[in-house]
Amino acid sequence: MNEPILQIAQGLAIPFLGTVLGAACVFFMRKQMSQNLKRGLLSFAAGVMVAASVWSLLLPAISASESMGKLAFIPATVGFWAGILFLYILDKITPHLHLGSATPEGLYIELSETELAFNGQRGTPDELREKAATVQNKKR
Asked: Using one digit for the tens of pLDDT, what is the confidence trace for 46-80?
């Protein structure tokens, strides 16, 4: 086999195996996780994402803007806060339901049975119709 192709295959196999092994952990979990385990796993995932954003995005952005001298941190800081603001606004304007809650968040819209089904609501068509009517009749 050609050496560059072998290197590419090895390079792709490492993240593939990591993803497969990480996803396989779901088969060893109980049906219901304890709240402490769930919080711990979510905290770990959040920490990994924060570390990835700092080392892979923020620090390289600061390095790329070193020509600004002492103010090299400003583009990365402004971009960081602009991203936070964008996500906050998106959360406030995008209509959505949370699991276990019938109170919609975001802009008011009328939800059909199909839209409720795609939003993770389960049930018979009559139950979905009733949920849609409940959501549509809520006053904000």
From this structure: 999 999 989 998 899 888 888 888 888 899 999 99
CA angle 43, 61, 64 (to 5 degrees): 155
Q: Would you say residue 134 has pLDDT above 80?
A: no
Confidence check: pLDDT of 121 > 70? no
Query: What pLDDT score does 140 carry?
Result: 43
Burial of 118 (0-12, 13-18, 19+ CB in 10 A): exposed
Q: Can you give the chain as a three-state secondary structure string?
A: CCHHHHHHHHHHHHHHHHHHHHHHHHHHCCCCCCHHHHHHHHHHHHHHHHHHHHHHHHHHHHHHCHHHHHHCCHHHHHHHHHHHHHHHHHHHHCCECCCCCCCCECCCCCCCHHHHHHCCCCCCHHHHHHHHHHHHHCCC
Mean pLDDT computed over every residue of the chain: 80
Where does residue 98 fall: left (phi above 0), alpha (psi -120 to 50 degrees), or beta otherwise? beta
